[in-house]
Specification:
about 550 residues, alpha/beta, FAD/NAD(P)-binding domain, 2 domains, eight-stranded mixed beta sheet, five-stranded parallel beta sheet, 19 helices, about 35% helix, globular, binds NADP nicotinamide-adenine-dinucleotide phosphate
Length: about 550
């Protein structure tokens, strides 16, 4: 006799995984649809990126008022940003404000790390099992796992023997850390390392920066936002978001369309002189489109930035080490900085070029390179992330016929629109691999993806269906399109997380490109989403 109680459907209509910018909005939309939905989050509170990255200097490099959600006029009216590029504490406060305003915490369960997800073919639902053994069943699952949420400390020998403090920037402690008089070592000079180094240089006793490769970087040009300015921004929100929707990067920055070769070198320099003092990504995104695609144009602009670095760094030998030689400006994601280069003019800051004298090991006292020992009290690993697919790989996700997502993505992600994976029905991704988020102002694309998916879910339910899945052919076409876009832009040749390089993860060597980012521009991407919805979701099987 079968003693199992009769299964009368999954417990939840929808489960969202991850309480970051995407997950917070997604749980709102699902519950607004009247769905019985739950958000689960591994951390002890909401905020995702802004809950975790508490390192000194962590802040937006999107203009704050273009980063916030646009979906509620009331929210736009009630929230004031204090800085053009607001810092982590304020960003986290903002996300809490949103969750509280829309009473979303009631739908959230924290300290809930997902171990596995298994699709039930007969019942068209997912069983999500947490690391504590709790099993939850749901019709739909939306993954808001984050693209940069799986930190990768280096694989140096001896890290566990270090007798001082050490942590990855993603795990910077919640309690204040007193850095005064401390001998601090920072390993890594990506966007994170650059923010930390610039921020703590004046505070620490001594700072040793271990740089493997320098990055191109330019001023953030941050400033406070006065009440009058905030009121002005508020009055222009519609226009601001319209601009963000039509620019490739989802910012207010529109490319200069005069044509690089059509203007004189003097006019080009005049533009760059102006942009260097402008806020945010203007220096990159208000530039000539040719710097993204043509080596010669890129080289001329890179030399302009190199000269700026030479002007800012007192010691020419140090300046030379801070100027990238293996890639041009924007061929990797550009970090923005505040007094980063000036930090190297301080007597308490030392730059160690570990491409010349590699780190051999971490010792109980600090870092040993092939040249010498550096005694330290704190080692900060600003060594990046197992980006894009790392958070997915850490969950045992099994689709139709028990196929593992990790196996399917072994050589890189394969998706339809970055939102679906064939063979994994009823599973959606926001800010997923091969979506538009990673190459644009994150929340702008996230909001669009959430809106689009929520409309799709409504459509599925209205039709009395219970299963939705992208077809294999459209998935193959999308992945081929994403791959093709890499060849059109110089950024497709860079050596960083956008091309899948990470020396701290086995198998992520240089030259083994993982096509995880859609580089075709947010407007083109969103136009495609709109067309697909208008045409009744071709390529997506709903039954
Ligand atoms: P990242 O860009 O991957 O940079 C990691 C750095 O660590 C690189 O300099 C890398 O050197 C170095 N590194 C890695 N492993 C190392 C090892 N074993 N030994 C020595 N050096 C090592 O990571 P990230 O700086 O955390 O930034 C990741 C992304 O997060 C950014 O590109 C950006 O999209 C986002 N982010 C945004 C903001 C913001 O302002 N909103 C701030 C921070 C980060 P190599 O270059 O030689 O590999």
């Amino acid at each position: 006799m079968d003693l199992e109680p009769e299964f009368d459907g999954p417990e939840f209509d929808g489960i969202v995984i991850g309480a970051g910018v995407g997950g917070i909005y997604q749980i709102k939309r699902l519950t607004d649809l009247g769905m019985h939905a739950l958000l689960i989050e591994a951390d002890e509170d909401l905020g995702g990126t802004w809950f975790r990255n508490r390192y000194p200097g962590a802040r937006f490099d999107s203009e704050s008022y273009t980063y916030g959600y646009s979906f509620s006029r009331e929210l736009l009216d009630e929230w004031s940003w204090s800085e053009r590029f607001s810092g982590q504490p304020e960003n986290l406060r903002y996300l809490n404000f949103v969750a509280d305003k829309f009473d979303l915490r009631q739908h959230m369960r924290f300290n809930s790390r997902v171990a596995s997800m298994v699709f039930d073919e007969d019942g068209s639902f997912w069983t999500i099992t947490l690391t504590d053994g709790t099993a939850l069943t749901t019709r739909f699952v939306v993954c808001g796992l984050g693209l940069l949420s799986m930190p990768t400390p280096p694989r140096y020998e001896g890290t566990e023997t270090f007798e001082g403090d050490s942590w990855h920037t993603y795990h910077w402690p919640t309690d204040p850390v007193d850095l005064s008089d401390k001998r601090v070592g920072v390993i890594g000079t990506g966007a994170t390392g650059i923010q930390v180094i610039a921020d703590i240089a004046a505070e620490v006793g001594h700072l040793t920066v271990f740089q493997r490769r320098p990055n191109w970087s330019a001023p953030l040009n941050n400033a406070p936002i006065s009440e009058a300015e905030m009121n002005d921004i508020r009055s222009r929100y519609t226009e601001i978001y319209e601009t963000c929707a039509r620019t490739p990067g989802g910012f207010e920055h529109e490319p200069d369309r005069r044509g690089f070769w059509k203007v004189s070198p003097e006019e080009r320099k005049a533009l760059w002189d102006d942009l260097y003092d402008q806020p945010g990504f203007g220096i990159w995104l208000r530039n000539f489109a040719e710097i993204f695609t043509e080596e010669e144009a890129n080289a001329e602009f890179s030399e302009y930035i190199a000269e700026r670095i030479r002007q800012r760094v007192d010691d020419p030998a140090v300046a030379a080490k801070l100027i990238p030689v293996d890639h041009g400006f924007g061929m990797q994601r550009v970090p923005l900085e505040t007094n980063y280069f000036e930090a190297y003019n301080r007597p308490n800051v030392e730059l160690v070029d570990i491409s010349e004298t590699p780190i051999e090991r971490i010792t109980p006292a600090g870092v040993r390179t092939t040249a010498q020992d550096y005694d330290l009290d704190l080692i900060v690993y600003a060594t990046g992330f197992d980006a894009i697919t790392g958070a997915y790989d850490r969950i045992d996700i099994r689709g139709v016929d028990g196929v593992s997502l990790r196996d399917k993505w072994a050589s890189g992600p394969v998706t339809y629109l970055g939102l679906f994976v064939h063979g994994f029905p009823n599973m959606f991704m926001i800010a997923g691999p091969q979506g538009a988020s990673a190459s644009s102002n994150f929340p702008r694309s996230i909001e669009q993806a959430v809106n689009w998916l929520s409309t799709l879910v409504q459509h599925v339910l209205d039709g009395g269906a219970s299963r939705v899945e992208a077809d294999a052919d459209v998935e193959a076409q999308w992945t081929a399109h994403v791959t093709e876009m890499y060849s059109r832009f110089l950024i497709g040749r860079g050596k960083g997380w956008i091309t899948g390089y990470n020396s701290n993860v086995e198998g992520r060597e240089e030259g083994v490109i993982r096509y995880g980012v859609y580089n075709g521009g947010a407007p083109r991407y969103h136009a495609r989403l709109a067309t697909i919805a208008d045409e009744g979701y071709p390529g997506i099987s709903i039954r």
